[in-house]
């Protein structure tokens, strides 16, 4: 296996998983045997995410030790995230209006999927509101936040703790050494866990294909093609322009993160690659403090792929029901998506939950989501890749804007790949 890189191993797992799922389509034994393997892999990754974020962020913040500079980095990051996600929503609305993926779709040919669990989550999220989301960034109990994996609360505490370590000078050095050692050890553990990735991918894809089958894509083929086409356009054109402005290339970034992007695509989980993305972006020349802050924060505030998909899906459902949304209604949809996509980040099935919380604001029947829930996993795979790539690029952009990007280190690392 050593002759084959991780990307090839994951690809082999993907192909085998699709083959097994297609052969045993509708067989519940596939889920019984394969789901535990996929679950173990996801759990292994979740197990290491919080220790890596905490340790790298504390070490990075303590190295800076300047509240004013950290505030500046945080402000730039949030503004950048808001601009890029807004562009993604506008692109999604334009793509859906131009290509009309929902026009002429016969709803009688479509299978409905139960979305009650998403409805309950959406109702809970709507009650909590946008302001409460910001209140919850401050944890009542850091151990509870660590246990739940509440990333924004963990980041908030880690930044304050890092500043505290820097403020006490010599006394803080043993603490700093402990967290530096923790970070190094966790990156080693990450690399060991990644050896299990091809098996995790095989299991997760096998379960998905055996449940829904490839035939479920046919009636909604136009939607799938449009979502994938819009995602590719967003990566090449929008992220490509941003990367060029930042003095790098989006294709260079794709080459560096090829293993992580393939893993994110096959597992539909950006969390599975968070530790490796932080590690690689640091090797690519981004300072530790920026990488360990920007990338995890982006997982809540910079879901480019998710917002792009949500805009397309909303218009698709309206078109499926024969509704023509006015310009005012589409602007309303844009503004609501801008808020809801941030307000309930981090909950399971976030894109579906955001859509449920949004569609009613412009009178689109939320029942329409039941028709596309069956292929959501296929669409989720594409939007996860865009989310990961967008957050990785954000680390470079913020590093460049702060004049802290190490281009020599970045070129050396790129040449070594």
UniProtKB/TrEMBL annotation:
The chain crosses the membrane at residues 45-65, 77-99, 151-169, 196-218, 224-246, 308-327, 347-373. GO terms for cellular component: plasma membrane. The keyword DNA repair does not apply. It is a multi-pass membrane protein. GO terms for molecular function: symporter activity. Gene3D superfamilies: Sodium:dicarboxylate symporter. SUPFAM superfamilies: Proton glutamate symport protein. The keyword Membrane applies. It comes from the Bacteria. It is found in: Cell membrane. One of its GO terms (biological process) is dicarboxylic acid transport. Keywords: Cell membrane, Membrane, Symport, Transmembrane, Transmembrane helix, Transport. This is Glutamate:protein symporter. It comes from Paenibacillus xerothermodurans.
